[in-house]
User: Fold this.
Amino acid sequence: MSQITLGKAVSCKGVSLHSGREVGMEFRPAPENSGIVFHIHAEDGVHLLSPRPEAVSTTELATTISDGRASVSTIEHVLAAIGGLAVDNVEVHVFGGEVPILDGSAREVVEALRSAGFVRQDAPRRVARIARECRLEKDGKSIIARPFDGFHVDYTIRFPHPVIGEQRFALDVTPESFAEQIAPARTFGFLKEVEYLHSKGLARGGSLDNVVVVGDEGVVNKEGLRFPDEFVRHKLLDFIGDMAMLGRPLLGSFTVSCSGHGHNNAFLRMVAGGEGLLEYCER
Assistant:
């Protein structure tokens, strides 16, 4: 299977989650074997950042990568869309220090990437496979990975709220299944938490336009949910984006329970640094 890049450049604009400012990003075709590279446009020039497990500097509210000089926040939905659509090489140009949150899902990014079209390149696809069963369990969170010729996720969440409770969703992730069943699922939060964050000047861009807000009586958003189990589907979306932080496609079967960005990154660091846990090959 050969590598894939975009057919042309395409852009998205919107509000950033943290600052609440208008920001933008542009996806551009990239050469073979270059992978995903973020081009951070700042006052002192353009900084290049590549997703790597060790590049993650914080996982509070969202995933941020940094090289100590420049950083970019809230990239997990973008990485999920790129990885979910099996795009290997792409430049992501970021204007404003953070990618736009858009509608809180990956749907608009998927639509933008599809509108650009895809081009097959000559080089074979480079992947990493889970070589043997491994797991990371801590504080009620767990990820169990097993060898599998594809990307399968079985995800369970548990929240002490009647609107959510326990939800489970399993999927063989392909470009088609990702676009239809995962990409539209929006991020969510509880009304009291959202109000607290706003009172502290955090998550200034968070609103009913980009967050499913759960109050004491139910979902606050007038349009309701896109899926009855939208909450667990979004957690699966986040997981796909966080696994894309490896820097190349990851193959395996993953059973995940109550994980989040921090636990996802700890797992990825474990498998990337563990002897014999990953097999690197062409596919």
Helices lie at 76-84, 107-116, 175-182, 191-199, 230-243, 261-273. The chain has two domains: 2-124, 127-282. The chain has a mean pLDDT of 94.
